[in-house]
Design brief:
The protein has about 270 residues and is of the alpha+beta class. It has helices spanning about 30-85, 100, 185; strands spanning about 90-95, 110, 120-130, 135-150, 165-170, 190, 205-210, 220-225, 230-235, 245-250, 255-260, 265-270. The strands form three sheets. Strands 1, 2, 3, 4 and 5 form a five-stranded antiparallel beta sheet that branches. A five-stranded mixed β-barrel has the order 8-9-10-11-12. A hairpin with a 6-residue loop joins strand 3 (about 120-130) and strand 4 (about 135-150).
Length: about 270
C-alpha cells in the first residue's frame, strides 16, 4: 500500500510489455506454435487446391485425346483391307463433342468397336467401364477415298466409251453403296445404257461391257471338280458381263451356274 492507504491497481491487461502486442482482456491466447501450425496448414491446403484446379483441365483433356486416337486407330485397322484392295485412302472423323461425354465417365474408360459396325461410312466407337455399368457410343464417319473414272462431260445413252470420255477423280466409295466402276480398262469400248452426268461416278449397271453376252449366245463352259477339269459348250440363259454370275444350259440339257470370264468362258466349280 502507498502512503494514502490505497492499494496500487494491477491487472494483467495493464502494464504489458510492448513486444506482447494487443491482447483482449480475459481471452486466453493460444500458444504461438499452435497458431503458426494453423497458419501453415491453411496455406498448404490453399496451395494444393489451387494446383489441383489449375491442373485438372489438362488431366481431363489428355485422356480424352488419347481415347479418341485409340478409337481412330481401331476404325482405321478395320477399314484398311478395303482401302488396300481399292488403292484408296481413309479419312476418319469422330464427333467433336466427344470430350465432354468422356469427362462424365465414372472410371478410366476402355475403347471398343460396337458389334455390327460398318468398316466405312457412318459408324461409331464405344467407351465402357470394366467394372461399372457405364457405356456410351460416339458417332464417327470413315470415308474411303478412291480415284475412279468419272465422265468429263454429260454422256447420252448409246455412247461407246473412249479414254477421252472420262477423267480420274477421288470419290468417297462409302457414299455409293451399290458400287461404281473403278477400272478404266473395263470401260474402254463399253456402251452407256443410260445418261451419265459429268463428274459423277459410273455405276456398273449404267454401262454394257463390249464382252457383254445375251440369252442364246454360245459359250465355253469349264467344269472344275476334285482332281478333274471338263470342258463343254452351252448357251447363255440371261444377259451377263465378264465378272458377273451367269447361268448356262449345256448341250446335254443340264443347267449350270458360274462366272463369265473375258474369253467368253463360264467357270463352274462343282
Amino acid at each position: 500500500m502507498n502512503k494514502g492507504g490505497v492499494r496500487p491497481l494491477f491487472h494483467p491487461c495493464f502494464h504489458l510489455p510492448p513486444a506482447w502486442g494487443a491482447i483482449e482482456c480475459g481471452v486466453p491466447r493460444e500458444p504461438r506454435r499452435l497458431r503458426s501450425m494453423k497458419r501453415s496448414g491453411c496455406a498448404t491446403a490453399a496451395t494444393l487446391l489451387l494446383a489441383a484446379l489449375a491442373q485438372s483441365p489438362a488431366r481431363a483433356a489428355a485422356p480424352a485425346a488419347e481415347l479418341l486416337e485409340r478409337g481412330r486407330q481401331l476404325l482405321e485397322a478395320r477399314a484398311a483391307p478395303a482401302a488396300s484392295t481399292l488403292g484408296g485412302r481413309l479419312d476418319i472423323h469422330i464427333q467433336d463433342q466427344a470430350a465432354e461425354r468422356i469427362a462424365q465417365a465414372p472410371c478410366a474408360p476402355q475403347v471398343f468397336l460396337p458389334a455390327g459396325g460398318r468398316p466405312t461410312g457412318k459408324t461409331s466407337i464405344g467407351l465402357r467401364c470394366a467394372h461399372q455399368p457405364w457405356q456410351i457410343r460416339i458417332p464417327a464417319e470413315v470415308a474411303l477415298l478412291v480415284p475412279v473414272p468419272v465422265p468429263s462431260r454429260p454422256l447420252p445413252a448409246g455412247t461407246v466409251l473412249r479414254e477421252s470420255d472420262w477423267s480420274l477423280a477421288e470419290v468417297n466409295m462409302a457414299a455409293w453403296p451399290r458400287g461404281v466402276a473403278t477400272d478404266p480398262r473395263q470401260l474402254e469400248g463399253s456402251t452407256v445404257t443410260r445418261p451419265l452426268r459429268a463428274g459423277e461416278p459410273i455405276p456398273p449397271s449404267a454401262v454394257q461391257s463390249r464382252a457383254h453376252l445375251g440369252p442364246g449366245d454360245p459359250v465355253q463352259v469349264v467344269l472344275n471338280g476334285p482332281g478333274f477339269v471338263i470342258k463343254a459348250t452351252g448357251r447363255m440363259l440371261h444377259p451377263a458381263s465378264p465378272g458377273q454370275s451367269a447361268r448356262v444350259q449345256l448341250d446335254s440339257g443340264r443347267t449350270v451356274a458360274g462366272v463369265l470370264r473375258e474369253d467368253r468362258e463360264i467357270e463352274v466349280n462343282l
